[in-house]
Amino acid sequence: MDEDHIITRTREVRKLLAELRDESDIPSVGHAAHQADVYCHGILWELGAEDATTPELSPDPGAEDTDGRVGGED
Amino acid sequence: MRDDYRPLYNKAARDSDHWNEYMETMPREDLDQLHLRRIRRNVQYAYDNIDFYRDLFDSAGITPGDIQTLADFNSKVPILDKPDLVKLQEQGDDDPFAGRDPAGPEHHLYRFQTSGTTGTPLQEAMSFPLSVKMGECWTYGFWNCGMRPDDSFYFAFPFGTFAGFWSAYWGVRRLGGTVRSGSGLSTEERIEDIVAFDPDVVVLTPTYATYLVETAEEMGVDLSNTSVRFTVHAGEKGAFVDSIRSRIEDGWGAEVWDLYGQSEAPFLGPTMDIDAGGIHPCEPYFYSTVVDPDTMEVLEGPEKRGEHVVTTHLPGAPGLTLRYRTHDLVKVYEDPTEAYDTDVTWKFFEGGVLDRTDNMVTIRGTNVYPRALEELITGVEGAASHYEIEVTREKGNDQVEIRIEADPDVDAALSSRGIEQEIQHAIKDAVGVTMDVRVLEPNDLPRYELKARRFFDNRDG
């Protein structure tokens, strides 16, 4: 899997995790989704494609992606 | 183990020589572009949200929009020192983080503080994502030097209010290794536990590593015959002092690994090649420049020696630190292939931290950095690796006294006076001045489980 594909899929996962985090009434589920999102943000960071310095500051995952990857195709 | 159990890593990942080849081999031009993007984002955040930085920028007559290039950043943003961070901390009244931590206390997972031995302790808070990223700095080096998730790590130190080795734990957690903590055990109990547990890696300071070897010998235990393949260190220069490194390698029968870090700006530079003789600043998280310690001008060129100024890309407290002077003297290669054979593109600090600019002493007109003496004094036959250097001032002149223990295995024919003279001659030959040297009996000096206190600057009192 190349870096661009990893980035695309990770952004998709973050959107799914945001849905779980924001809409689940079960603390166990919501916090697990938050922690999983931290690692997803880490994936984007490690590829230079994060949209915010820290996941808590990330824009609404449903918003249009604005940051491309350094050295990437976009 | 069931054969349908999912492994931690797929085969291709497990066979990789790099933890993250994409980032580790990124061309310099792209790395600098990434640094600039992360710096500009943090500059804007700091200006908008942290009064201290807004005041700093206002006093310098700049706004975030003035930072268009790394050269702009390096020339326009003032350099900060530790008193500035204390001021920043005090600005927050009841909140020691004063807006530095964007996520807020709800996200604090760990609270630490610096030792305060040189002034007001700095408060630190780590969120979960920050702990993951700080751990990842260690994991980059662990993986590249051959440590893997089926390795077990023995932590031979007390977990306390100091962040240092906590982040090593986060690094092992990120790797997927097995952790055994000897935190609550005595030195003798730790040695017995290491023998019983068979760890692959032991995490501890260089000073404590040599102390464990000495204590094990007294117990009749040869640590070089244990399962330990690596000793992992931080907090002291010892791992890059040849004589001390050799003692650890021989005593443990292991390879010596080191990581560079500093509490005031929690940046970390791992060893990426066990034989490289230096460390790489972990560039995904930190932007490093080197300045002339006298003029504070950024030094240019492929290879230079000066004071390390660091900018963190990480949020949290005390993260998001712009242009912080570390007082660490380093020799930097912009292109690490100029220093050793590697495909890692991150900058390279040969020899780790060479000394501290605030430790410099002037003896009869000669400037001397005490850490430069470490290799000389611990390399003399008959001298152990436990020593202290004390600086005082008499009639306007700096005076240095070196106290060093005799090696317990020393040949009886080597008298204390003879060792003292050997050390004095070595120093005189290297730096041109004579210093007072006193050889002590073995075990006369204190032992430390964490960072050893070697340098005593009593010039003001």
Task: Outline the secondary-structure elements.
The complex is a heterodimer of chains A (74) and B (461).
Chain A: H1 3-23, H2 27-46
Helix pairs in contact in A: 1-2
Chain B: H1 11-14, H2 21-24, H3 28-49, H4 51-60, H5 70-76, H6 82-90, E1 108-113, E2 123-127, H7 128-144, E3 152-155, H8 164-175, E4 178-181, H9 187-197, E5 201-203, H10 206-219, E6 230-234, H11 242-252, E7 255-262, E8 267-270, E9 278-279, E10 286-291, E11 303-312, E12 324-333, E13 348-356, E14 361-363, E15 366-368, H12 371-378, E16 383-394, E17 397-406, H13 416-431, E18 436-440, E19 455-457
Parallel strand pairs in B: 3-4, 3-5, 5-6, 6-7, 16-19, 17-18
Antiparallel strand pairs in B: 1-2, 7-8, 9-13, 10-11, 11-12, 12-13, 14-15, 16-17
The Cα radius of gyration of chain A reads 12 Å
The oligomerization state is heterodimer
* Topology pattern of chain A, helix = H, strand = E: HH
Shape of chain A: elongated
Mean pLDDT of chain A: 85
Report the span from N to C terminus of chain A: 17 Å
Into which percentage range does the β-strand content of chain B fall? 15-25%
Number of strands of chain B: 19
Percentage of residues in helical conformation of chain B? 25-40%
Estimate what percentage of residues of chain A fall within beta strands. Answer: under 5%
Largest sheet of chain B: 6 strands, mixed
Largest chain-chain contact?
A: A-B, 19 and 29 residues
Strand order of the largest sheet of chain B: 4-3-5-6-7-8
Rg from alpha-carbon coordinates of chain B: 23 Å
**Terminal Cα separation of chain B, in Å?**
64 Å
Largest sheet of chain A: none
